[in-house]
Design goal:
Blueprint (H helix, E strand, L loop, with lengths): L1 E6 L2 E4 L4 E9 L4 E9 L6 E6 L5 E3 L7 E6 L4 E6 L8 E11 L2 E6 L3 E6 L1
Parallel strand pairs: 2-11
Antiparallel strand pairs: 1-3, 3-8, 4-5, 4-9, 5-6, 7-8, 9-10, 9-11
Length: 119
């Protein structure tokens, strides 16, 4: 199993910045891709950004140029730097880790952290 704990959410004004962090524990050696997802009230959970263990990144079009995902494999953490935040970025943000065991693929979610952007 892989356990994830997020931190860093909060309330910020439009145009401001926040940094989210996610720490992994457990079968960390089996983790491949890690990512951040978000879910706004009444909407489906969506991918924000992801990063492979080799450092390749993928971003949702809505956050390109504003958000940066990074990963520290030595510390088993993944972070999301969010700049130029807008009210539409308001959501619960979740960390996700994909991992492998016995040739099968699994994934784990963190508990979520709330981000609120005021106009």
């Amino acid at each position: 199993q892989v356990q994830l704990v997020e931190s860093g959410g909060g309330l910020v004004q439009a145009g401001g910045s926040l940094r989210l962090s996610c720490a992994a524990s457990g079968r960390i050696f089996s983790i491949s891709t890690m990512g951040w997802y978000r879910q706004a009230p009444g909407k489906q959970r969506e991918l924000v950004a992801s990063i492979t263990n080799g450092g390749s990144t993928n971003y949702a079009d809505s956050v390109k140029g504003r958000f940066t995902i990074s990963r520290d494999n030595a510390k088993n953490t993944v972070s999301l730097q969010m700049d130029s935040l807008q009210p539409e970025d308001t959501a619960d943000y979740y960390c996700k880790a994909d991992w492998i065991r016995g040739g099968s693929y699994y994934y784990s979610w963190g508990q979520g952290t709330q981000v609120t952007v005021s106009s």
